[in-house]
Every structure is written in structure tokens, then in C-alpha cells.
Amino acid sequence: MNLEKVIFAFFIVLALTLNFGFYVGEIDNPVHHSAYELYAALVVSLIATVLKLGDRTHLGAVLLATSLVADLQLIAAAIVWAYADHVVVGGMTPHIMTAIVSLSGGALLANLTSVVLFIAETIAIRR
Amino acid sequence: MPFAAELVNNVLFLLLRRLRTPLILLITVYAVTVLGFVLIPGMDDKGRPWAMDFFHAFYVVSYTATTIGFGELPYVFNDAQRMWLTFTIYASVVTWIYSIGAVLTAVQDPAFRVVRIENAFARAVRRIREPFYVVCGYGDTGTLLVRALAESGIQAVVIDIDQERVNVLELEELPMVVPALRGDAAIPSNLQLAGLKHRHCLGVIALTNRDAVNLKIAITARLLRPRLATICRADTQDAANNMASFGTEHIINAFNTFAGRLAMALHAPGLYLLFEWMTAAPHEPLREPIFPPVGRWILCGYGRFGKAVHARLAREGVVATIVEADPALTHPPQGSVIGRGTEAETLQQAGIEQAVGIVAGTDNDANNLSIIMTARELNPQLFMVARQNEQQNALLFSAAKLDLLMQRGNVIAHKIFALLTTPLLTEFLDLAKQQGNAWANQLLSRLGGIIGDEAPETWGLAITPAEAPAIYAGLAAGHSVTVSDLWRDPRNRDERLPGIALLLKRDEEEILVPDESMPLVRGDRLLLAGRIEARRQLSWIARNHNSFAYLATGRERPSGYVWEYFVGARKINPGK
Predict the structure, then answer these.
(1) Burial class (CB in 10 A: 0-12, 13-18, 19+), B506
(2) What is the predicted ipTM?
(3) Does A79 contact chain B (CB < 8 Å)?
(4) How large a percentage of chain B has pLDDT more than 90?
(5) What is the pTM of this model?
(6) Could you tell me which chain A residue has the CA closest to the CA of B14?
(7) pLDDT by residue (tens digit) across B245-281?
(8) Number of Cβ pairs < 8 A linking chain A and chain B
(9) Collapsing DSSP states into helix, strand and coil, what is residue B296?
């Protein structure tokens, strides 16, 4: 067992699960989507990105790229949320909520790719 | 270049790897403190319960962590929030200090700096857009050679194993930037970094003081770029043979070359002076002629250099008495005197009162100077020759007022410089050697009348469409051009430019100092010498059809279609 791999797998799977947890529910209903969950998903995703830095293999490079995509999407979702709450007159609308959730949906796909790649690598190593 | 890209990645990955921990720490501290502010219940300005959302929390943590400290926003904090803010200040500020420290440490790390310096060097080499030479070894010879190259506008790239030598190069005031790398030239990747595979690389010059390294450089160049010019220094015959076995272009045995030049100075001073003039670096002052006496010489030092000198002198019939300190190691011939030559006793034993000259040729500069000073006291009439090993002692040797000073670095550097810049020169000097001293003296007096007090400029000229289009076209049109026609001044064709043709190569035939009335044909290659302005004028004539036409016919050629038409019409009319 390799401790580095445990921590690494933990973070990328956690990024996916949190992301998924935020994503599920009616797309335009703010009650179904928790800001705390988005926050947790973003923080974990950032940590997962840093863990992938400095890996010189080809797979490492692809993992880093997918992780950066997830970060970008989640940061965009967070900014849109803050914008809706504090800048837009009248606050959150179903339309804005849809935008936030679909942005996190994109991040979900990127995180899913990460996990699939990670599993593929794990299966290739027969130890 | 994939190799360079790999290097850039190296730098990046090294930095990222080092920054992993500080980055994760920063993210964690931010995440925890932001979450804390969101969870702690507060109050707005009217006393109603109010909790920060993520946006406000991130805002507060951001200005606190960076020590900007805007205060308690948007509403005055309660005690629970103040407690959390205190924790936030210490946790985030300490983390930032640690992270910045980690970045600075990573950047200043010796391993990282080496990679960065190599990277900058590789980039500088990659940006070279003109032909250049790779010079391995920046000792005395390398210093002189790089300076001579730079002053004549030829780019060089330097590798030396000693950081101090690289620093010296950086401090040297050269007219162009010469990239230098501290590294072992015997490692192929270093040579590659220096541009061995660069498409503008013209050649590799191996000048390190170790034969094994020079040999490795020659092999590397041979395998990676088979057609590249390689010039190698070899101190032993063994290494020279080894290099020759796989086709190294020019092998320079430092001791033989140097000893040969010294022996030439003693038995054929005219030829020696000719060699010195022809191989001088640009803008060097002209060396004065020397007049060594005939008789018995004393030769101090019988090492590799002394042996080479002795062999050459013996071949020329010059008798020399050898003074050697360590006969067990060097095996001097019978009748040699044992001693260093720095004491009066040894020199008297060698018969200094009857000798005509002395050569201080040990490998120790201090001893050589001591020999010269002792000898001068015993016999002030002696012709003094000393070998200077290190460039840093130049001041002492010039103060010693010698009749002839042999600087090894100088001789080798000049020889290589001449090889690189004027290809026909080697052939000329080989032919000149067979002609003897009287011939050389005659040529010297002709040259001396032409050039001023600076070393003559030597250059090659090929009558080809690329190098001399005007002359080539003129010859093709049936004009007759003789060697002396080359030297007509384009401002007034009856004046003569200060220059002389040293060698004419026609196919495989070599004509030494061709007669002035000799007609040129297309494809001729010439070696010319003269003043720098003659060179400029000549390259003008060779390329400009109008000046060439004026020189060949004495008439100004019409330089536009309109005028050409009128002149043509006038020429035809009288015929009618």
C-alpha cells in the first residue's frame, strides 16, 4: 500500500462525490443545492489539483488538465452565485440557479474523467 | 528542439514539486477560516441575526490574510467572530510567510539554479541566427581565440569546466555576447546544449588541457554531426593518432606547433615573421623583425616542449647545450648539464660565456624569468628567448625585455584563428615553408611597403557568382582581368590599392605569389593580403558591376536604362 496513492485517490474521489452531491436535484430549485456543498467541492477540487502538480508522466498531465477544468467550472459557479446574491437586484432567480448547477455539471464530467483515468491506471498496475 | 523543451519542463516541475506543500497548506487554511466565518452567527447593524455568506467570508479572510486589514466588515463583529478572526490572522499570515519562504528557497536552491542557468544558456544558443563555433576550454588559448573571433564578428559559444573561467568570460569586454556554460565538455549533452546540432554550428574547437576530454569531444562531434569541422588540441602523439584515426579535421599538437615556431624563429627569422604577420589577430600591432645570432645555444628544460625544440634545432643543424633538472624523468642526451638553470653555477657549466643565445623553456614561468635574469648577469650579449606559460604573467615577461617571447596560448590561438577565417592560408604557409628564409624576407619587404603599422589583413576571394559576381560576369563577357587589375582603386583606376596576392589556386594547381600580369579565369581562388581599406574596396569592386566596368575599361558605365539607350544609340550611329 502506498500512502501517497491513498491520499491522492481520496481527494479525487471526494471531489467527484461532493460535486455529484451538489449537482443532484431539480436544476432550477435553490433548495435542492447547498452552498456548503459547492464550497466543499471547490476546496477539495483545488487540493486535488495541487496534488497532481509535478507528476511528469503523460497520465499525470491529463489528470492535471481535467482537474484544472473542474476547478475553473466550480470557481465560475461560485462567482455566479456571489454575483446573484449581492450584485443582481432582486437576488437569485431560477434562471441563474440553472446556470450555477449546469456549471457544476460540467465540473462533474471533468471529475468523472479524472476518476476513470485513475481507475484505468490502477487496473493496469497488477500489484 | 525537444531537448530544450525538456529542460523548461524540468525547471517547472522542480518548482511545482517544491511548492506542493505550501499550496495545499494555503488552500486548507483559507478553506477552514472561510468556513468558520460562514458558520459563526453574527448580527447586522440593527441587531437582527445575520450570518456571513461565502462571499463575505472570503472577502474578510482575503484582506486579513494579506495583512491589509480593512476592519470588521460589513457589520461590527461579535466576540465569537473576533475570536475566529484572531485565529485567522495568525494561521493565514504564518502560512503566507512560510509559502513565500518556500518559493524563495526553491528558486535559490543550487540544483534549481543550475537548471535555470543551463536553461538560459540553451535559450541564448538557440537564438543564434548566424554561423558560430563551439569552443571547449577557456584557458589562455581559448581566451585569445574567442576574443579574436568576436573582434572579427564571428560568434562563439564557450564551455569550460571551471566556474571561475566562465566568470572571467562574463567580465571580459567583448564586442558581442558570447554564451558560456560551466560544464564538462566530455559529456555529450553539454555539447548538444552548446549547439552542436544547431544548424548554424560551423565547427567544434577542443582546447581543454586534457587529451581524454578533447578526444571525447572529437568523437562526439564526429558521431552527432559527421560533417562538422573539428579542431582538436592534442598534447601527446598517442592522442593525436587516435583523433586522426576517425578523421578529425585539424589536430594541433600544442608542443610541436609551439616548438616548431620557436625553431623557425631561430633558424629562419624571416619565415617566422611572415608566419606571425599572416596569422595575427585583427588590429594587432606589427611584430618587429628579429635577428638571432648563429652559434651555440643553451636550452633550459627538456620536457615535452624542450624535446620538441631540440629535435627541430638539431634538424636545422643548430647546436644546443641542454640544462635539465630531472634527468631521470626526461632522459636528456649525453653532455647535458644537470640543474634548473636558475643558478649561475649550472649556466657556467653549460658554457654560457661562449653561447650566443639562451632559451628558457621550462613549464614554470617563475623559473624561466629567473633563468633569463641570471643569464643576463653572466653574459649581457646573449639573445634571450623565454617561454611564457600563463597569460597572467604577461606583465613580468614584457618587463624582462626579451629578444623573443613565445606565448604558447598565443601561437595556438593564432593558428586556429587563421585556420577558421582564411582557409587558403594553411596551404600558403605550407608552400612558404619550402621556399626558405631569403624568399620570405623578399616577400616581407614587399608587404612591409604596403601595410602600415598594424598586422596585415588576409582574406580569401573566389571568382564565383556568389563571391565576386561583377568580376565573374566581366570574365564571362570576355574582359581580361589580371592580378594587378584587382588592385585598381575604384576612385581612380590609375592609383593602386595597398594589397598583394599571396596565392592563387586554380583547380588543383597552386601558384605562390602569382605574377601581377597573370590573367584570372573563372573559378580561381585567391589569398590576398593588405590593408583593411583595400579589402573593403576590393569587395566593392568584386560585387558592383559599374565600378568593375570602370576599372576594366576606364569608362563610366551608364547606370540606368535611359542613359544606356542613349549611349547605345550614339555608339551605333557613327557606325552607320
Answers:
(1) middle
(2) 0.84
(3) no
(4) 22
(5) 0.70
(6) A54
(7) 888 878 888 778 878 888 888 878 888 888 888 887 7
(8) 40
(9) coil
